[in-house]
Each structure stands twice: as C-alpha cells, then as structure tokens.
Amino acid sequence: xxxxxxxxxxxxxxxxxxxxxxxxxxxxxxxxxxxxxxxxxxxxxxxxxxxxxxxxxxxxxxxxxxxxxxxxxxxxxxxxxxxxxxxxxxxxxxxxxxxxxxxxxxxxxxxxxxxxxxxxxxxxxxxxxxxxxxxxxxxxxxxxxxxxxxxxxxxxxxxxxxxxxxxxxxxxxxxxxxxxxxxxxxxxxxxxxxxxxxxxxxxxxxxxxxxxxxxxxxxxxxxxxxxxxxxxxxxxxxxxxxxxxxxxxxxxxxxxxxxxxxxxxxxxxxxxxxxxxxxxxxxxxxxxxxxxxxxxxxxxxxxxxxxxxxxxxxxxxxxxxxxxxxxxxxxxxxxxxxxxxxxxxxxxxxxxxxxxxxxxxxxxxxxxxxxxxxxxxxxxxxxxxxxxxxxxxxxxxxxxxxxxxxxxxxxxxxxxxxxxxxxxxxxxxxxxxxxxxxxxxxxxxxxxx
Length: 449
Prior knowledge:
This protein is α/β, with parallel strands linked by helices.
C-alpha cells in the first residue's frame, strides 16, 4: 500500500490522520507535526512462543522484586525500602539542587555493598565527576565513570562493566542515531529511555535516569517518559536554603507519597532523620503572627510553623497579598473566612503569609494555623506558648477533621507541645497533651483572644 502522511504529537505521542493546532490528548498547542509512516494492512496474528509459562500468582518468585537498601535511610524511605533490581528510576529537579551529588553518593554505597556501579555523565567530564567524588568521599574501586553522549557507547560500557546500578546524567544529553530528531527532543528522549529500560529489565540492572525540568517545574520531555519508568522522584529545594526534599510522584514498588529530607553541605548531601526543627523557629518568647501546625507527608508527620504579617496599606490601590511556601489560592480563601466569619478587618491591610525553613505546605490541615496566625498578627496578640493547631477551615467558618490526627498529635507531643487546638471529635489526647476542641473559627478566636 502507498505511504500516507500522518501527524504525531511531540509531547505525548498522540497520532492523528490530520493536523490540528491543539493536541486532543495532552492539550498542548503547536506540538502536532507531520511524519511519514507506511500504512500496513490489518493482519491476523497467530499464536507464537512464550518467554515463560503462566503460573499461579501464589507461586511467582518474589526474590527478583526485593528492594536492596542503599544505606541512605532517607532515600530508601522514599523508594519503599531501597533499589529493586531491574527497576528504572527518573530523578528530576532544578539545576544545581544537588541531584548529581546525591546519586554519586548512592552509586558509591551500591558499589561498596552490592556490586559494580557505573555513572555515565553527558554533561560533565570524568575528571569533573572525580573531583566531586573526592570532595564527598565517594571513591571506590568498583565505581566506574564514563562521559558519553551516544546511546551505543553507553550500551557498550554496560556490556563491559556489567554493573548492578547504572546512573545516567542526564537522559536529555544522550542521543540515539537510530531515530531522527534534535538532541534532547521528545523523539530522542523517548528512544533513549525505551532502549535503556529494555536493557535494565533484561539484565536485572537498576537504572537511574536524571531528567531536566522546565520553567514551570514539570519534567522536560514527553509524558511517555514518566510512563516508561517505574519510579518518578522529584528533588526540590530553595537555592538560599540547605534543605532538600525528595518526593516520590510515582512508585510501583512502594508508597507514592513519602518524603525524604536532606541537608546539603561541603561534604555532600546528608540525610536529616528528624527535620521538624528546621521548619520551626526557636525563640525565647512568643510573638504575634506565628502558629505551629503538623503536616503529614505520606506516613511521616512534620512540624511546620506558619507566619503572617498584617500591616496598614499605604493606599493608592489594592492591598498587597504576598505568599511564600503556601498555596496562594488557599491563603486567599482563609483570608476571606477570617475577615467574614472571624470578624477581623483585613480589607484595608497588607497581608503577608509564609512558612519557615523553605518547606512547602499545601494540605488543608494547616488552614487553622494560618487563620490563627493572621488573626494574631492583625490583633497584635501572640498565641500561647506550646500551642499547636491542626484542622481544615471551611467557607462557613467550621473547622473540619483531617486524616492522621493521632499521628500528628503524637509527633507534636514528642516535640514538647502541651496544648493542641483541634476540631470536635478529634480523638484522644496523647500523654502530656491537652486538647482544646473548637467547632468553628469564631469559637477558636474567642478561646485565644
């Protein structure tokens, strides 16, 4: 049959018989490009040989899916216990956040305990990687380095070294000569990731791919890249802060909502097993506009402090609303509820809200602490010392329960907090803590102010 033109989306791979301006699958504009593909007739597919016979699910061997710990507890927590042989991981983060340093330490731990590890860098020379390894103390005889940008050369190194772990930094810098497309483009990234995934599965070799991010913080490349891999990990952190957070956005071998905390320094990246002290200010006396809450990242409760500042507006326009580390839409909603239901005048005042330590708080459990911080700043009255607030605030001013209240309060009690402001029917209080149940925001303000 004759070849006929076809059109494919460079972002998600959606195929269409005609050109359209917007992809119906991923809703991206200007990504549909014409590609020539031969039309093949439909054929009946006959049964062929199988790679292994089907067995009852209870008889499937689990040894190949056991996670091997790396020795870095915070990294293993996010992955669900460690690295699974044959798994493909995608680690994405902004430039300079510390991805290469952390993965070099992971490769060093694997080389020292499990087998050879290969680090292939497409962005730096082997000498530059060696300098970083010396600085963080990650030198080992079974840790191999290579600087390549061709897929065939990477596969040759894999055949020669036979590593148990392959780290490719990064997948956007490696190109495959078998397909057309610009370096780092969607077609090239898809081809490289597919080839390395097939090699990882056939050799039971754990593979870690480093990915770039766009200006919006999304992973660069086609969406297919996230579907191909088994684990997608996001490495976040503010440039002015030494704190780094690892989140698993997709995990086929464990929970997809865990968080790992690291602190970056001159000697590399070190895990922080108890990061609550990083997100709470240490002061001798309470100040207005500050309240402590407990967020839940996966199964891990973390104490976080919410601060607010209410100042008289300079006039000449709308009052300012500035937010840092919080969801701006949620802050705007809590502002409106505090003014309307809590009867705190904010219409002619500038309101600033922020979290401490660079942590990002997005869950509704921090609504009550944010409302108390705003009211405390507006009234210029500090909250009692040793108070923690947990609860979601509704548009009518009611305070709702949130999940994991018991774990949250237990962590607050362990950190020395004596009083907790919670919604009604929040459960029993931990030892050494007193619960103050409030049905709505007005009742909370009446108890505290």
